[in-house]
Structure formats: C-alpha cells, structure tokens
Design goal:
The complex is a heterodimer.
Chain A: E1 3-5, E2 10-14, E3 19-21, E4 24-26, E5 32-39, E6 46-52, E7 60-61, E8 64-69, E9 74-79, E10 88-96, E11 104-105, E12 109-114
Parallel strand pairs in A: 2-12
Antiparallel strand pairs in A: 1-4, 3-9, 5-6, 5-10, 7-8, 8-9, 10-11, 10-12
Chain B: E1 4-7, E2 10-13, E3 18-25, E4 31-37, E5 44-50, E6 53-57, E7 64-70, E8 73-79, E9 87-94, E10 105-106, E11 110-114
Classes of the chains: A mainly beta, B mainly beta.
Chain lengths: ~120, ~120
C-alpha cells in the first residue's frame, strides 16, 4: 500500500520569504503522479502543483516549485515570495496507476504566513 | 465554468433525520467523488462514480447512500447518522474515468453536524 508522510505538522514564514514543505512517499508502482493541494480556511481543496513520476524536470507554477527526488521518494514544495494568502493547510498526495481512483493524502502541514 | 458546487454549505441534523447533500459540476467531467474530512485530518475517500456507475465504495456504512442521477450531479443521502459522522464532506470531479493522471477539482464542502 502507498503511504505519504509529511513530517512538519506546522510551519510559519515571514511574508516575502521562501519556505519549503517536506513530503516523502512509499510505493512499489512505477507510474504515478504526485500532487500538492492547498486548503485555505474557505475549506476548498485547490491543486497547487503536480508532478508525473516519469518527468525528470521539476514542475513549477509561478511562485510554487517542487524538488522531486524519485530515488529518495521525496517530493518537497517550495513557496517563493510568500504571501498572506498562502496561509493554509498543505496536503501532499499520491495517485498511482494501480489504484487509479484513489488519491492518498499525507496528514498535512499547516502553513502560516506572518506579516 | 470550472466550479464544483456543493449545497448546503452547512447542515445540522438529528440522528433520526434523513437529509441529502448535493454536488454539481458543468465541466463535462465523467468521474465524481465523495470524500469525508474530519477536523485537522486529510480527506478520506468514500465513493467514486465513473460514467455514472459506482466504481469504488470504500467500505462506507449503509447509512450513507450515494446517487449519481446524471453526469453533472452527485448526491449523498444520509439516514440514521451517528455523532461521529460529523465532518466536512467534500465532492470532487475529474475529466475522464478517474485515471491516475487526472486532476481533481474540489468543491468547498458541506460541514455536517449530527446531534
């Protein structure tokens, strides 16, 4: 079974600074996607970024980028130029070809951006 | 329209009540999902519908009954719930049949309280 581990329950960062959220996963599958979802106080889960396992190039979306280390099964999220609106719960998630409908989430990291 | 709309946003019900949660999307997506999220926990998958057919039931108690009347609408019928069923219920959709590479679009959820 796949597992996703987020070892930082809470983090804080000053506005305009950079922060990195950690995520590790365990799987025996070869085809899979990794995701970072954001859940602000409005409760809606919003996809921040996703990475296909076969792509060596790290995904980027504006201020958000990932560091995907496939051999180490690590998938960290870097947020540059943090903004107050980035305050949210961040979930790392895995979806493998074998259990395709099921999105496996980590326990989440609560990020607070301070003014 | 890139939204998944859930109604109601909040619901309080007694253990003997019957109520329904509604989810709607007009993106032409063919897979729809129900997730349950307890406070400070990640979402847990309950049901998946693919092309209006139930494809996954994650051993959910029968007091939760899903229904997919058409490709745009997903309901969750509730009956004889227990206080421990109080949670945020999230609906999501994805474009195809729920393959591992599909992006999920989430609604804002229904916050359910069972008294």
């Amino acid at each position: 079974a796949q597992t996703v581990t987020q070892s930082q329950p809470e983090m804080s960062v000053q506005e305009a600074e950079t922060v990195t959220l950690s995520c590790t996963y365990d799987t025996s599958e070869s085809n899979y996607y990794l995701f970072w979802y954001k859940q602000p106080p409005s409760r809606q889960m919003i996809l921040v970024i996703r990475q296909e396992a076969y792509k060596q190039q790290n995904a980027t979306e504006n201020r958000f980028s990932v560091n995907f280390q496939k051999a180490a099964k690590s998938f960290s999220l870097k947020i540059s130029d943090s903004q107050l609106g980035d305050t949210a719960m961040y979930f790392c998630a895995f979806r493998g070809e074998g259990g395709s409908e099921k999105l496996v989430f980590g326990k989440g990291t609560k990020l607070t951006v301070n003014p | 329209d890139t939204e998944v709309t859930q109604t109601p946003k909040h619901l309080v019900m007694g253990m003997t009540n019957k109520k329904s949660l509604k989810c709607e999307q007009h993106m032409g997506h063919r897979a729809m999902y129900w997730y349950k999220q307890k406070a400070k926990k990640p979402p847990e998958l309950m049901f998946v519908y693919s092309y209006e057919k139930l494809s996954i039931n994650e051993s959910v108690p029968s007091r939760f009954s899903p229904e997919c009347p058409n490709s745009s609408l997903l309901n969750l019928h509730l009956h004889a719930l227990q206080p421990e069923d109080s949670a945020l219920y999230l609906c999501a959709s994805s474009p195809g049949q729920g393959a591992y590479n599909e992006k999920l679009f989430f609604g804002s959820g229904t916050q359910l309280s069972v008294l």
